[in-house]
Amino acid sequence: MNRMKMLYAWVAGAAGMLVLGVLWHRVIMGSFYAEQGAAAMREEPQMLFIILGILALAFLMSYAYPIGYKGGSPMTEGLRFGAFMGLVAFLPLNLIFYGTLNLTLAGALVDAGWHVVEEGVGGMIMAMVYGSGAASDSS
Known about the structure:
The protein is an all-alpha fold. The protein has helices at 3-28, 30-36, 47-68, 74-100, 105-130.
């Protein structure tokens, strides 16, 4: 595995997902999320932990992407991979949150759907860094 590509993919993917997440959760859909989970939300999000979570997710994605890369267009592979990661990570988590926190089902499902998009774009960014030889690069 090319460690420098992995590092660049990690940082670029995390930055892309963080920017998209802030735009979606704070700017575009901020009032929706406030209405859907008002009783379960903090007054102010703890951004340090949000950033750490995104860094952890992006690290795992940048590590796993070349393992599953089968060839083909990096954009297509990255979107497929990232969307799958978003689905795997956030649909079960949001259903658990719905079952344990005072959230609405609509809020949980919209958020899970959003993460399919967000991680899909993050996967595309990572795939662009890795290029078309992701599975066979060494060093």
